[in-house]
Write a structure and sequence with these properties.
Blueprint lengths: L1 H10 L7 H14 L4 H4 E3 L3 H10 L5 E4 L2 H6 L2 H7 L2 E4 L4 H6 L16 H12 L4 E4 L3 H12 L7 E4 L7 H8 L7 E4 L6 H12 L14
Parallel strand pairs: 2-3, 2-4, 4-5, 5-6
Antiparallel strand pairs: 1-6
Length: 218
């Protein structure tokens, strides 16, 4: 993994990226073997470093994911070492109840919730200040944006990497106006659970970035 990171670093078009953006970029390319990440990975200034510092000072204790595959890809050793819990509400029995019948609360217009939307609603009730990581479901990301606008969610940060063709670009655009929330976004249609997970891992291991030594907690 160290050799791969050095290879990727040497093949980048730019060599002057800020360290925390570079660390996220190396993780994204290592996971996908796709150098298009250099063009489509967006990070707010100091987003990775800011989120790592929140982990270190204890203000970020929970990562919420849209699907279980993202949770599975976050390094268990890092979570344990840092005292972080990674959660996905998709299999929560309350989700099934919420998706059985149309809801008529403000903004729902009688529409059925998707399971991932319902999962995010439950997550926000219990962990409104979590780091939210999305690798699959644009409707879940859109739901979080709606809850932020309503003042119900105050995320420590957002990783926006849903993949696909329906509502994907739109969901990512909806994240950008939240200037006070550190954001990492895979622009366009690309993304995926593996990307969302590796970006979480980049945050959790940022203290290894300066030495360019990935692989802790593997």
């Amino acid at each position: 993994m160290i050799e791969s990171f050095h290879t990727i670093s040497g093949e980048l078009r730019r060599q002057d990226y800020p360290l925390d953006h570079l660390w996220a970029l190396l993780h994204a390319i290592h996971t996908t073997a796709d150098f298009d990440m250099e063009r489509i990975l967006y990070t707010d200034d100091h987003a990775v470093e800011t989120l790592y510092n929140k982990v270190k000072d204890g203000s970020l204790k929970t990562i919420v994911t849209d699907v279980t595959m993202v949770t599975s890809g976050i390094r268990k050793g890092a979570l344990q070492r840092l005292g972080i819990e990674a959660k996905c509400y998709l299999s929560d029995p309350r989700v099934a109840e919420m998706t059985k019948s149309p809801l008529s609360s403000e903004g729902d217009s009688g529409m059925l919730l998707t399971r991932t939307q319902a999962g995010i609603r439950l997550a926000v009730e219990e962990h409104p200040d979590a780091l939210f990581a999305f690798g699959n479901a644009p409707t879940a990301l859109m739901e979080l944006c709606d809850l932020i606008r309503k003042g119900k969610a105050h995320p420590a940060g957002i990783i926006a990497a849903p993949v696909g063709f329906v509502h994907v670009r739109e969901s990512k655009h909806m994240v950008k106006p939240f200037r006070d929330i550190p954001k990492i976004i895979i622009e366009g249609r690309k993304g995926g659970s593996n990307l969302a997970a590796t970006l979480c891992n980049a945050i959790l291991t940022f203290d290894d970035a300066e030495q360019l030594k990935p692989g802790r907690d593997l």
